[in-house]
Design brief:
By secondary structure, the chain is an alpha+beta fold. It contains three helices and seven strands. The protein has a single domain, classed as Hotdog Thioesterase (Thiol Ester Dehydrase, Chain A, Roll), CATH 3.10.129.10.
Length: about 160
């Protein structure tokens, strides 16, 4: 592809996570480009038969607060990563940044749990992406999130 046609996603170089985690069954590791996300990762994804994506992470000791459950701030970090990925894909791989992110925490998440996230682009304009998500552990909903994303360079 010529340089003039290169997307932002293609020019970013993947960053390795400092921790190795076996992908959950059916998932593969995502290429991470954000240093903070790489530090908290690895993150995983699978593509469903209908073409939709499911993202996931496995909760370990880095993600916990003092009571032994996953820290809500970590859940927000993963929400930002997963909803951001949906916004980038929905914008045609144009760079997007978080404008707003709201979450509702519905249940505690224990160490060792695999948290799955299903995102949906609810609406898109030329300059703003509206994305929602549901987070589950073993089929039980543990968090919901909604977000707005600014598509950089668009008005």
């Amino acid at each position: 592809m010529s340089e003039g046609n290169t997307t932002a996603a293609e020019t970013r170089k993947p960053i390795a996570s400092p921790v190795e985690v076996t992908p959950p069954a059916g998932f593969v590791a995502q290429a991470l480009h954000d240093p903070f996300e790489a530090l908290m990762g690895p993150l995983f994804e699978r593509v469903e038969p209908d073409g939709s994506r499911v993202s996931a992470f496995v909760a370990d000791e880095r993600h916990l607060h003092a009571d032994g459950y996953v820290h809500e701030g970590m859940m927000m970090t993963f929400a930002d990563a997963f909803l951001g990925g949906a916004a980038w894909r929905g914008s045609g791989d144009k760079p997007c940044v978080t404008m707003s992110l709201q979450a509702s925490f519905l249940a505690d998440v224990a160490r060792g749990a695999t948290i799955e996230c299903r995102t949906k682009v609810e609406k898109k304009t030329r300059s703003v992406m509206f994305v929602s998500a549901s987070f589950t552990v073993a089929g039980e909903q543990v968090m919901t999130a909604t977000s707005l994303w600014k598509v950089l360079g668009e008005r």
